[in-house]
Here is the input.
Amino acid sequence: ARREFLHVDDLASACLFLLEHYGGESHINVGTGVDLSIRELAEAIRSLVNPDAEIVWDATKPDGTPRKLLDVSRLRALGWEPSIELDEGLAGTYGWFLEQLRHDRAVRGVDTPAAAAGS
Here is the structure.
């Protein structure tokens, strides 16, 4: 299965852009126009979080729609393009997650994931 991923900041940027530059009645797809496989996404996350981790796939789960990719030609013709690459978005989101985890542990006085799970 292949999917298209868009950073939420790019979505907000596109919405603001359209409010300022589009008054038509036709729909406008907002996306990157680029898709990747779920395997490629999982490997990108693994390389960021733990390159030595093993990815385990559950073959009993359905794949869903083989491909979800938007036609973003109207949006591109208006002059908007996404600015956050997938790797940059993943790194920023993972960094935010780690910071929230540190903050939560500091507030709770918990030092380890095992201790956090027990509280």
